[in-house]
Amino acid sequence: MDIVNINEVEPFITKDGSQIRELLAHRNSCIRNQTLAEARLPVGSSTAPHRHLKTEEIYYILTGSGEMRIGDETQTVSPGDAIAIQPGAVHEITNTGTEVLSFLCCCAPGYEHEDTILEE
């Protein structure tokens, strides 16, 4: 049985500049086809605009508030919002609130730096 507690996971910086804690992935569990991570963005910061060639993502907002941009569309997001991101869609999230913006990132197939393409 694989159970990972967030307090025991070392954070790392993804290619888009967000700090994440990978909770379940092929690197630390029996999971092979997806990943679950928690991301944290400080007040006023954004991820770099990016896309994934293969991976579809779901962001689920836990705390804070922000603006989510996918392609040409931008919407305000807050706790309880689930955001669908298709493979190939350029996206970024910005913390526009007054506290850390934290959210779960579910990726299938699992997150890999090589599948992340930074946009200018």
Keywords for this entry:
120 residues, mainly beta, Jelly Rolls, 11 strands
Return the CATH class.
Answer: Mainly Beta
Termini distance? 42 Å
Major beta sheet summary:
6 strands, antiparallel
Give the SSE order as H and E letters. Answer: EEEEEEEEEEE
- What is the architecture at the second tier of CATH? Sandwich
What's the structural domain tally?
1
Rg, nearest Å: 14 Å
CATH H-level superfamily: Jelly Rolls
Subunit organisation of the chains: single chain
Which structural class do the helices and strands define?
Answer: mainly beta
Secondary-structure map with pairings?
Layout: E1 12-13, E2 19-24, E3 35-41, E4 50-52, E5 56-63, E6 66-70, E7 73-77, E8 82-85, E9 91-95, E10 101-108, E11 116-118
Antiparallel strand pairs: 1-2, 2-3, 3-10, 4-11, 5-8, 5-10, 6-7, 6-9
Report on the structure:
This protein has a single domain, classed as Jelly Rolls. The chain has 120 residues and is mainly beta. The strands form three sheets. The chain has a six-stranded antiparallel sheet, with no helix packed on it. A three-stranded antiparallel sheet has the order 7-6-9, with no helix packed on it. Strands 4-11 form a two-stranded antiparallel sheet. Helices cover 0% and strands 47% of the residues. It contains no helices and eleven strands.
Brief write-up:
The chain is an all-beta fold and 120 residues long. Helix content is 0%, strand content 47%.
